[in-house]
Structure formats: C-alpha cells, structure tokens
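User: Can you model how S-adenosylmethionine sits in this protein?
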Amino acid sequence: MNNSWNKVIYKIWSPIYDKIFNSYLFLNARRRIFEEISFNSRERVLFVGVGTGADLELIKHFDLEITAIDLSTDMLKKAMEKYENTSITFLEMDAQNMEFNNESFDYIVGSLVLSVVPDANKCFQEMIRVLKQDGKIIIFDKFISKNKQLSLPKKLLRPFIRVLGTDIGLRFEDLYRRHDKNLKIVEDQSIMMNGMYRKIIICK
Ligand SMILES: C[S@@+](CC[C@H](N)C(=O)[O-])C[C@H]1O[C@@H](n2cnc3c(N)ncnc32)[C@H](O)[C@@H]1O
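Assistant: Here's the modeled complex, given as structure tokens:
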C-alpha cells in the first residue's frame, strides 16, 4: 500500500463504502466501540482516517471540538456532506505526518486505519505524539489474533486484499511493543469475527 494507491482505491470505495462498512455487522461493532465512551464537554477529539464519517454518527458531537482527517478527498467529501452544518473540522491530511502540535487532543479515534496506511508504525507514532498526557486512543481494527499465526488461506489472500486497500496481516502487539513505555492498554477485546477485529483503548 502507498498513499497514491490508497487515494485511487478509496475513490473507488467511496460511493459504496457505507453500504458495507457502515451497516449490519460493522455498524453493530461500531456501536459497541462507542457505547461506553463518555466524552466530556469541550474535549478535543481527532478522527484519524475518518473516511465517510461512519463513527461520527455514533457520538454526540455538539459540545466536542472534533477534527477529522483523511488522505482521500472522495471519502472526506462523503463525510463533509453528512456534517456540513456542524462545527467539525475536516482536513485532508496524511495520518503518518500530521500537521498538529504535540499533545493537542484528548482523544484519538483510529477506526480501520492502522491496517490501511502504508506505515502503521508511523501513523501510531503520530497518534501518540498529538495525544495529550492522560488522553486516550480508541482503536477499532483488524489484527492477527493474539498468540496466533496468520493462517495459510489468509497468507495467500493477503497480497490481494492489500490491493483492495487494507492489510489483514498486521499484529497489534508488534506495533505497541515499540511504544509501550509511555502507554497503557486499558481495554483490549474482541469485537467481531473471533478476535480478528478488536476494540483497543490505550491511555498515555
Ligand atoms: C477502511 S477506511 C476507514 C474509514 C473510517 N475510519 C471508518 O471506520 O469507516 C480507511 C481510511 O483511511 C484513509 N487513509 C488511507 N491512507 C491514509 C493516510 N496516509 N492518511 C490518512 N488517511 C488515510 C482512507 O482514505 C480511508 O478513508
């Protein structure tokens, strides 16, 4: 995956994305991600790779300061159309090189984005950098299940699925290990498909 290809592939996904990734199974999973999260008034929340804004529908955003970034103009356009009369700030930005100061946000939301960006480590590092001390990162994504190897069918499918814009072979533990000195996992649970999709909440 690289940024140029992601722009192409998410231009193609944008008209149909919500029909698949914002309905049924995925919508239920998203509801479970946010049901127990209570943001406080005026908190600053960053949505990384916001896409069509599927997560935004599930939070009460009126008294939050929300910024939402994405690399794809087309995905971002879909989100902006849904939220044109709100105070949400939408920005076209590379999640691997964010244009924010250190410690800018109380919450960072990364749904289905670490498995999509070309360099998940860089993206995760940026999420940590722009998160305030005591802030939280909320991750909803697919990773290799804990203590398991990628199965042979998935190994064979992985290159094809990458062409479609996502990686099924990312191990969260490898990503986290590089940064764990400054972080604490406060929640890590299976949310869908036998632990392939997880809800992970990290505190700085
Ligand atoms: C699978 S979609 C997830 C969208 C949304 N977060 C959701 O949960 O539905 C991945 C998103 O990441 C965006 N993306 C890919 N590479 C990116 C990058 N380098 N920086 C920011 N966003 C990126 C894509 O354009 C796409 O909108």
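A couple of observations from the model: The longest helix spans residues 152-163. The mean pLDDT is 95.
User: Helpful, thanks.
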